[in-house]
Amino acid sequence: MAWWCLTLLLIGTLLAVLTQPDALLVFPGQVAQISCMLSPRHATIQDYGVSWYQQRPGSAPRYLLYYRSEEDHHRPPDIPDRFSAAIDAAHNACILIISPVQPEDDADYYCSVGYVS
To answer: pTM of the predicted model, to two decimals?
Structure first.
């Protein structure tokens, strides 16, 4: 019993905690920047690969892009190049950049991370 509790405790300390803004108001033609901030008690954001997803009402999440660095990133061919990302090391965050914003970009955006060793 004690072994299971210790295992769960150790696993819990390894999980990344991400924070995103609740909402962002941007008008067509402007630049949207959405942050995905990694909890400071974990490794730096550069140690993680960040995937971004878009979800429109009534639809399944759509994969937008993966970003770890200028040298390590991927955007599928069907995703417009208006979608990009960058690292904000000062805030331990990855930023999704949409430029310029279009009306069809009205959606929820989610990030996920995977540790890269």
So the answer is: 0.81
> Which residue type sits at 58?
G
> What are the CA-CA distances from residue 37 to residues 20, 50, 73, 89 (Å)?
7, 10, 18, 10
Task: Please check whether residue 30 is in contact with residue 11, taking contact to mean a CB–CB distance below 8 angstroms.
Answer: no
Contact residues for 75 (Cβ-Cβ < 8 A; gap 6+): 64, 65, 66, 81, 83, 84
Classify domain 17-115 at the CATH superfamily level: Immunoglobulins (2.60.40.10)
C-alpha R_g of the chain: 16
Single-letter residue type at 109: Y
The pLDDT tens digits for 86-104 are: 999 998 899 999 999 999 9
The per-residue pLDDT for range 53-68, each reduced to its tens digit, is 999 999 999 999 999 9
Give the length of the chain: 117
How are strands ordered across the β-sheet holding 48-55?
Answer: 73-74, 62-67, 48-55, 108-115
